Amino acid sequence: MALEVHWSGSEGVREIPSFPARFDSIVPFGGRRRSGAVRMLGGPGAPGGELTIGPVDALLARRNPLRFHERVAQHGDLVKFRLGSETMFLAVHPDLVREVLVTSSKSFASMRRMAPFLGNGLITSEGEVHKRQRRLIQPAFHHARLTGYGEAMVAEADLAMRSWEDGREIDVHHEMARLALDVVGKTLFDVEFESEEAAEFRAAFVCLLEAASEKTGRFGRGYPGTSAGGMDPHRAFAVIEAFLARLIEARRADPGQGADILSMLITATDEDGSSMTDQQVRDEALTLAVAGHETLASALTWTWFLIAGHPEVEARLHGELDQVLDGHPPTVQDLPALAYTEMVLSEAMRLYPPIPRGGRRAIEDVEIGGQMIPAGTRVLFSQHVIHRDPRWYPDPLRFDPERWTPEARSTRPKFAYFPFGGGPRLCIGEAFAWMEAKLIVATLAQGWSFVQVPGSAVSLDPGVTLRPVAGVSMRLRGRASSRA
Questions:
Q1: Considering its fold, how many domains does the chain have in total?
Q2: CATH no. for residue 28?
Q3: What pTM did the predictor assign?
Q4: Considering the domain boundaries, does residue 73 fall inside one?
Q5: Which of 230, 256, 258, 262 minimizes the C-alpha distance to 244?
Q6: Residue 448 lies inside a defined structural domain of this protein
Q7: By residue range, what is the domain housing residue 468?
Q8: What percent of the residues of the chain are helix, what percent strand, and what percent coil, each to the nearest 5?
Q9: Residue, of 184 and 221, whose pLDDT is higher
Q10: Is residue 305 domain-resident?
């Protein structure tokens, strides 16, 4: 029995099927995609044209952008369309995404949707500011430091699973979001969210995520932990500012007191001896907290969701964990031997990428795939569409970790899979995130299985991150293993 997956804000469907285009007006510019070759607007052999979006699909673009991207992608790999008063492009071929993110990256800037919430951190900064901040932050994610972070991640996961009870029904997304925030607290700030002050920060942080989703995603949908009497967003910002200000002040007063990432941000110096201001530290700390929390919670939620529906995958995962770990908590040194665990996570993030879409704005006229992109034009790309393209993934809706053997990987273009972006703006914490996800899955799966609840359904909310609207209900089942 498989859980049903629905798109929020549209007709209920089992998974995400193909469907005919329904635009009010279509100027044809190419045929159906039949191979791995790029089919694009204005490209070789294509007569050129532009999709005219009518009011029905304009509403879809706002309410369910991933569905909208699926529709647009049926008409080529680089599609020009007008939405309202703005002309933009959608790129859904790996080679085109590579051009935007790598080859011609200097001709594009981020779209700064999160700037009102994150300030001028890595996600939103540009140019020399971005380069300098990346230089200063990079040492915090050096391989030599990952071991210490890994121990904290396993400890937090161990605490979480020890609080569970056999047969209890839980919201997996709520549990993973809470665990992800606990890991953020320990690795980024070296705080436990049990104190009254830290608990207030937790509530404010959840409120911030919800406010950001409402403003930059589709609709606010009640993030796990929120309630009708939740904190006012303006107060949430004040609480977060005050909490971070106190932490920064304490670290500056005693620079050597912590091995957490915040301490490293404060003590980091550039080539000219300069360091970050308190505001820069605040912006980067909040950026790392939001990015690390949201993506991990999403990745773990969909991983458990998929494992629960595929007992053969779960059995093989458990077999690897039992053989490699033999009942002991996982360590960073164990990760190379947990190859199948990584394959499971990779496949889960293919089907449900934590960041399902993105884009860049051209800051100068630039040619992409033979098509001139005027300065100021947005070029969108969709991990959701590319990760489910049958050219790269036969039977694309099937959950199959075997797609991630070295041999299978070698047959695909690099940007057929890019859950962490790419190019100069590649997620700075990618190695950290992979380590975190693998250690948490290895820790929890040793002691517990997640069992689907009969009759339950899951609704997808295609906002900034791909999360469930009302959680994912699962029943806990203790495993008969030495770790349990």
A1: 1
A2: 1.10.630.10
A3: 0.85
A4: yes
A5: 262
A6: yes
A7: 4-478
A8: 50, 15, 40
A9: 184
A10: yes
Residue 307 DSSP SS3? helix
Q: Which strand (E) or helix (H) includes residue 304?
A: helix 278-308
CB 359 within 8 A of CB 380: yes
Q: Per the domain annotation, does 451 fall within a domain?
A: yes
d(CA 273, CA 284): 19
Of residues 4, 26, 20, 10, the one with CA closest to residue 65? 10
What is the rounded distance in angstroms from the CA atom of residue 358 to the CA atom of residue 362? 14
Which distant-in-sequence residues (6+ apart) come within 8 Å of 284 by Cβ?
A: 121, 122, 133, 137, 265, 276
DSSP state letter for 51? E
| 30's tokens | 């190419």
3-state secondary structure 174-235: HHHHHHHHHHHHHHHHCCCCCCHHHHHHHHHHHHHHHHHHHHHCCCCCCCCCCCCCCCCHHH
pLDDT in tens, 363-384: 999 999 989 999 999 999 999 9
For the stretch 105-124, pLDDT in tens is: 999 998 666 666 677 878 88
Token pair recorded at residue 65: 């952008």
CB atoms within 10 A of CB 302: 28
* Identity of the amino acid at 398: R
The beta strands (E) that lie in 363-426 are given as: 366-368, 371-373, 378-381
